[in-house]
Write a structure and sequence with these properties.
alpha/beta, Purple Acid Phosphatase, chain A, domain 2, 7-stranded mixed beta sheet, 6-stranded mixed beta sheet, binds fe (ii) ion, hydrolase activity
Length: 438
C-alpha cells in the first residue's frame, strides 16, 4: 500500500510507461503498414527522402526505446533521472499515438469525403480490348482534323514516319501524360488544346499515362479532370493509368472510382497493370508509378508470361508512367536522378530486349523525347499540361530527339510491318516523326 502511494505520488509506473509505449508502437506500425500497402506509396520515400517521412516511419521506436532506457535507471539511488525518462517516453507515446491515428484517418477518410461526380466517358475496359474504327484516311496524316499540311515544312513530308495517302493504318493510337489537373503551375490552355486535337483526330484509343491530378487524394482535382474529359473527349476510347501524383495519400481509391469501375477487369487481375490484344497490336501496361516499388515477383512473372505469349507478327507496345531511358536532371532538393531510370532499366529492359518489345511509351518527365537502344524505341510523352521540366543537365546517350518546354501528344499509327510515330505540339503540329519496324 505504501509502495503504491509512493508510485502514484512520484510519477508514472513502469507498467503505464511500457504499455503506452507499446500502444504507440503498434499504432505507428499500423499507420505505416497501411501507407506502405497503398499502390506506389513506397516510391515517395525513395524519390522524396524528406526528413518528415523518415520521422513518421521510425517515430514508434522513440517511446519504447525511452521506456527501456528507464529500466536500468530504476536501480539508481536518485530517481529523478528515471522519472524524467519515463515522462519523456509517456509524452512521446501520446504524441506518436495521436499522430498515427490522425494520419491513418487522413489516408482513409480524405479521399472518401468529397463526392466524385460521375462522368460520361468512353473508358476502355482492359479485358474487353480496343476496336479499330478502320478510319478511311483522306490524305496524308490529316484525318480527323489535325492539320499537318499547314504546319509541316517540305522536309517534314519526307521525314521518316510520314504517312503517304495510300497508307491505311490498322490502328490509330494517341498517347500523352502528366496533365496535372489541380496544379497551379499546369498549363490548362495547352491541356485543353491537346484534348481538342485528340478529339478531332478520333483515334481508336487514347492512353493517358498518369499524373492525371496533382494530388491524388483530392476529389476536387479528380472532378476537374473528369468534367474536362467529359466536355472534350466524351467519345474517344480512353484508358488512363496510375501516376505517382495520382497515388498520393490514398488517391488510388479515387483513381479506381474515376477510371476503373467495379465491373472492369484485366488479364492480370490488377487495375494497375494489364495487357490488351487489339488484333493488330499488343499493348501492355506496367505499374511503375515512381519506379519499381510495385514491381514485385507477381507483376514480374505476369509481365514475362505476357511478353513471351505476345504474337511476334504484331507490334508489341509497352506503356508505363515512369520512364526507362530518358534525358533529365538531378532533383534540386534531393539530388535524385530524374533521367535514365536506375531502377526501371535493370528490372525491365532485359525483358523488353529478350521478348522483342518494339516501342515503350512513358510519362513522368515533362518532356517529349525519342530514344532508341538495343532495338527498342522509347518515347517520353509527359507533355499534357504539367509544368515543363527544366533544360536537361543529363542527356541520355540513347536520345535521338527532345523537345523541352512544349506541350503536346504522340500519335502512333499501326501499319503493316511498321509503326508511324508523330510527336505533336498542343496545336497538332508535327514536331517529330519516326518509324519503328516490327
Ligand atoms: Fe508528372
Amino acid at each position: 500500500m505504501t509502495q503504491q502511494i509512493k508510485r502514484t505520488t512520484r510519477g508514472l509506473s513502469r507498467r503505464t510507461v511500457l504499455i503506452s509505449a507499446l500502444v504507440a508502437l503498434v499504432l505507428s506500425i499500423i499507420m505505416n503498414g497501411y501507407f506502405y500497402s497503398l499502390e506506389g506509396a513506397r516510391g515517395l520515400y525513395v524519390w522524396h527522402p524528406l526528413l518528415a517521412l523518415k520521422v513518421l516511419l521510425f517515430m514508434g521506436l522513440g517511446p519504447i526505446s525511452l521506456a527501456i532506457v528507464a529500466l536500468p535507471l530504476e536501480k539508481l539511488a536518485k530517481k529523478w533521472a528515471m522519472r524524467m525518462v519515463r515522462w519523456c517516453s509517456f509524452i512521446g507515446s501520446i504524441l506518436v499515438s495521436v499522430a498515427s491515428i490522425a494520419l491513418l484517418a487522413f489516408l482513409i477518410i480524405v479521399p472518401r469525403v468529397g463526392p466524385l461526380e460521375p462522368a460520361r466517358l468512353d473508358l476502355i475496359n482492359p479485358s474487353q480490348g480496343i476496336q479499330s474504327q478502320e478510319v478511311q484516311m483522306e490524305a496524308g496524316f490529316s484525318a480527323g482534323g489535325v492539320k499537318d499540311s499547314a504546319t509541316q515544312s517540305p522536309e517534314a513530308e519526307d521525314a521518316p514516319g510520314a504517312l503517304s495517302p495510300l497508307d491505311r493504318p490498322l490502328l490509330r493510337l494517341s498517347f500523352s501524360s502528366d496533365p496535372h489537373w489541380g496544379a497551379d503551375t499546369a498549363n490548362a490552355t495547352a491541356r485543353t488544346q491537346v484534348l481538342e486535337g485528340i478529339a478531332a483526330s478520333k483515334p481508336d484509343a487514347f492512353f493517358m499515362l498518369g499524373d492525371t491530378v496533382e494530388t491524388g487524394n483530392s476529389a476536387t482535382q479528380w472532378n476537374l479532370a473528369l468534367s474536362d474529359l467529359e466536355a472534350l473527349i466524351p467519345n474517344v476510347p480512353l484508358r488512363p493509368i496510375l501516376g505517382n501524383h495520382d497515388a498520393l495519400f490514398g488517391g488510388q481509391y479515387l483513381y479506381r472510382k474515376a477510371f476503373y469501375p467495379k465491373d472492369f477487369s484485366s488479364d492480370s487481375g490488377s487495375p494497375y497493370y494489364w495487357s490488351i490484344n487489339t488484333g493488330s497490336a499488343t499493348i501492355v501496361a506496367v505499374d511503375l508509378p515512381w519506379g519499381t516499388e510495385m514491381f514485385g515477383a507477381r507483376q514480374k512473372a505476369w509481365l514475362e508470361k505476357t511478353l513471351a505469349a505476345a504474337d511476334p507478327r504484331r507490334p508489341l507496345i509497352v506503356v508505363s508512367h515512369s520512364y526507362f531511358y530518358a534525358s533529365g536532371y538531378d532533383d534540386p532538393d534531393f539530388g535524385t536522378p530524374w533521367y535514365d531510370h536506375y531502377q526501371n532499366i535493370p528490372a525491365l529492359v532485359p525483358l523488353f530486349e529478350k521478348y522483342g518489345v518494339d516501342l515503350v511509351i512513358s510519362g513522368h518527365n515533362h518532356y517529349q523525347e525519342l530514344l532508341s537502344h538495343n532495338g527498342v524505341t522509347y518515347a517520353i510523352v509527359g507533355s499534357m499540361g504539367g509544368l515543363p521540366d527544366p533544360e536537361p543537365s543529363h542527356h541520355s546517350p540513347y536520345s535521338k530527339w527532345i523537345d523541352v518546354g512544349g506541350h503536346g501528344w504522340l500519335d502512333v499509327s499501326v501499319l503493316p510491318g511498321r509503326l508511324a510515330l508523330t510527336f505533336r505540339s498542343e496545336t497538332g503540329e508535327a514536331r517529330q516523326r519516326a518509324t519503328v519496324g516490327y
